[in-house]
């Protein structure tokens, strides 16, 4: 369901119970939950007046998110609307009034100042729509860190819309001759048609606050033939500034954005849009004009021979500010001297004229050809004796930052064996390729990606950059524009591989650097003497009759609370490093969204012994899988070092060869609720699960094969972690040495089935590598 982002902090992922969709209002009192408009997802009824009151525990605030929203639209939300109030009634301050098809995402939070929020829904006598679905969660008043303020949505005037159909009108909020648009507006219109049509846009009235660089109030347009980075303000409309009669899309989508600040407001704008049939020729014809973001092109009669003399010319145009990448998918043209009897020629068109980018014949596929501007010409010549297939190609737009020929670096040849101690791999071609870095036997490599632009894909299936050890162990895998953190190899030989299965619009290029270091280089931050290797007074690590259901210890010095709009737990590895679970941070990866709290066994109160610090950097495991929770581990580098004392100390890491026996008793602590949908515990709580074999955990009646080799199981009746314990360490003892054997990752119930933990024995090399390189 869409509300799962609320529970990513949970070791156990549950479905939040939903208030009946037939209820028109209710008092909601759980720690978290979900509610909807009456009859949702069917259309709501006419003449409704519904109210909901969310009431949570004293000392908490309420964070509310919309996961679906569709009401009748109006610039002032006069007819059907939903309004939020910061308090117990409609007399409280309004947090926002909403209507239309407003698009919300998981980052849009509406936060109360206290533990009460009032929601009112009203509909009129005509027109019915789907309504809304919303989720809420209670968070501590002192530690709440909302990701965004409410200003983003308050003055959108219902202007965030997705528009389809044949025609329509766009206006700024409150548009009229005697009116001005409101301050702090943030509007986005997305006009979409089918692939056979294009969109026309004409501004009939335009008056915004003037500025030479349009810093304050402005309009931007994306998807047209005008500059996508240009801002428009003052009294000169976008098409007038570009000396055009109207604005045309180059594909089947136009995006218009409008932003205003708090200073000066003007009349605004009115624009009319309509769709028309594309006039461009189909790729099978001989010549014509093609435009858009991507397309395909073939020679006439392909894949059959033409058997006649023919000359064709196509002109391909992509949006201003983009370039064209032309890729041959098939090429079969007689390979005569200098391609004299047939060829394909690519030319770059600019203000200076035409420049040839290459002439091609034969059967060998050339590397993709990149233009210098946004227009190319493709010429095809074949004589009457040709018996070959011709060609098939695809073209697509891509964005590339300005760089001079002098700045450009040559590509590193594919299948190279690179033996220099320091160097880089440069790859701009965009095709699959592999390189081997081989250093002397007493050296290892520190590898870092300094630039990357690959196809953006959540699974990295379509296009991947990966680095592997000789043994096959993956050091990292990435795609899109995500630069992984630098890693250090375990041996002197690694393989770098660029795998292309399906490229999209994005530029395919990257730069990877390496630097050699001594294999025996060590760092004292891993010295086990710095972690707890002796018995702690007052801390129990074995259960007895009095502790079978758990205890509340005075303190456990390696435990930390991690606070954002959700909460998790973590363990201290050194004064500067904390370890936790990746699933806590994957939806909130910004360091400014989190606080780390150490030395305090209480969740809601303070006694002066706590240390509260910010995070400097977040390091995700390079092969973390958010679907299976494999390698569910993250390292947090702190902005300020913790001060070690009797309440703040580090926990040891296991060795790779540490043995965990079946039925071995360990412990786990946290502040998470042990009751489904319950409130976090006030005090730190400790339970004593036992190690369970992976084979038993993977039995059909338990987890049915979902526990991987990078996980371990632990639990016993009534002993397991639950919501909010994500990232808490599973601690075991070996000869009075406390070590974190695992991290709370996932499970199936609060103290129900066994809990599943990330096995830190499998993560030690990666942990030490990241800490060493970034210490």
Automatic annotation (TrEMBL):
May I ask which residue range the UniProt record assigns to the signal sequence? 1-21
Summarize where Ca(2+) 3 binds, as residue positions. Answer: 383
GO CC term, one of those recorded: extracellular region
PROSITE patterns (alphabetical): CUB (PS01180), TRYPSIN_DOM (PS50240)
**What is an example of a GO molecular function annotated in this UniProt entry?**
metal ion binding
Indicate which residues the UniProt annotation says bind Ca(2+) 2: 268
Q: Which UniProt keywords apply?
A: Calcium, Disulfide bond, Hydrolase, Metal-binding, Protease, Repeat, Serine protease, Signal
Q: Which GO terms describe its biological process?
A: complement activation; proteolysis
Its recorded name reads Uncharacterized protein
